[in-house]
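Q: My collaborator sent me two sequences in one message, no labels, and asked for predicted structures for both. Can we handle them in order? The first one she listed is below.
A: Yes, handling them in the order given. First sequence, followed by its structure tokens:
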Amino acid sequence: MTTFEQRFGQVPEVTASAPGRVNLLGEHTDYQGGFVLPTAIPQKTTVGLGRNGTDTHVLYSANLDRTLRVPVGEVGEDFAPYLTGCLNLSGVTEGLNVYITSEVPSGGLSSSAALEVATLRALRELYGLALDDVELALRGVQVEHQFVGVQCGVMDQLASSLADTRTMLLIDTRSLERRAVPFPAGAEVLVLDSGVPRRLAESGYNERRGEVEEAARLLGVKELRDVTDISVVEALPSPLKERARHVVSENARVLEGLEADAVTFGGLMNATHASLRDDYAVSHPLVDDLVVLLQAHPDVFGARITGAGFGGAVVALVREGTAAAVGEAVLATYGSLGKVVVP
């Protein structure tokens, strides 16, 4: 793999990293003021920066072995908007060499948020930007909205900026209050790649957000976070009824999961998958097959699709010390389409 020095003929002035994340409970609630329960994964994205003395940014992805050149102040195409969005929002007026390498698989593990947070961390160091870790995450959300075209919530960037691998991070996405929550005793997390690629801007993500916003309007509330009696959503027309039912029930599952043992927590994860599959309609048949295989394994407490959906990764809560063996056994049956990401 080509290094920064080999690619640009200089050493990077700054280098920064940020992790991907996996969400245990609380999917598609963060843009309705809800509760989420992610954790960081060990895999990180690393970004190096160096001034190049020109009016053009040179962006190099080591994973793709691809170089993009984008004039300062413009956005560009391909993977450029994730980077140029960060540069433009941070007021960069000079050309930079940008080198990216990542261990975070795409699809459900917030690879884009990890890229944004790593880039913003590097910019904060290079230019002495007055951004705390929460403000930095919120700037990453702005990048998604204004430059990438995905109307995401705040969970992914907050998790990449604030979470660790030792605990889950409960985030109230309305107030941004947060606290560390221990994993259920006797359990560990397993993440598998379903092998089904997806792209959020081309999927139904923005459509789902529009549907739940309309549901909230019809119910006369600011956000579905404010609905505590799930029966009131049954008066909505389909598919708004189903979309709202997922969000309201998912918020309740997060709160129940805070004190749950491994068996109960796993059951909540199973219920989340059913809700994402049936009410929110963001799963995929192959993903469902992988989840079923996991749920049937005797060392698995629960399993579900994770991330925005439409493909990507699945997450399971498994008996402590069994993640690698469970992953190997399940993927052998599944057809070796994925790989163990986090044992």
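Q: And the one she listed second?
A: Here it is, processed independently of the first:
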Amino acid sequence: MTMTPKTDDGATLWAERTGTGDPVVLCHGGPGLWDTLEDVAALLADRTAVYRWDQRGCGRSERRGPYSVAGSVADLDAVRRHFGLESVTLLGHSWGARLALHYALAHPERVTRLVYVSGTGIGPDSAWHPEFASNLRSAIGEDLPRWEGLRSRERLTEAEEREMCVLQWAADFPGPDRERARALAERMATPWFGVNSECRTEIVAETRTMSEHQLHVACGGLRVPVVIVDGAQDLRPRGAVDSLEQALPDVGRVTLAGAGHMPWAEDPAGFVSAVAPQRGRRGRGREERPGGACGRG
């Protein structure tokens, strides 16, 4: 079921519901991109009602600002209200994990559980980005000259921008099968909605000015159960998330061996097992799970 929620200031968003059961709202990565979590929705739809949406100015949502973290939180709440949901599980991926965290801090009474997938923590970008940049260049491999050439241009055509993104996204799928990685990246880019650079620039700039100390204190008061899900082969160093894990009072962490930034792609069974509610289990805990089709799930 596809719907068009309205934000508080009248912007139109794209949203879709699949499955039945307790509600799970997905928050896609970016910022400036669109929902690429269709496979996650398919994995969960036999046990939950899954809600996907394109963030403001992105994908199928109205291309209209302004863009901010608080505005993104308000837009997410507009999606919740549109579907008449009293409280939800939030599953955020990458930047969407940060958005889901900010929503939980602002509206803890509306969040039953937070699933923080492949995020980069609450510390400064300088703590992890140089290592990520080095890892990315290595993972792009023989396509690096082409990627760098596209990236250095002031203006890209839509086709060039898409090609640049596909080359970069393919690096996020680990393993020797680079044809598979390229196919998965092509799938993420199809259909192509174009990157909203204004949205990305403004939100990234805002997050870089946020106080790590204040976020740490706020997270320490969050009384929402959280599970952090990492792919051990993510190009973004997973140590960047440690301070967030240490700040949260009710948190578990699962690392999927052999998985990358989109861990459901390499280990779908392990991913579902990690994000599914763990009955009778609360509080801190770390777990490493073997990746691949034979992973625990």
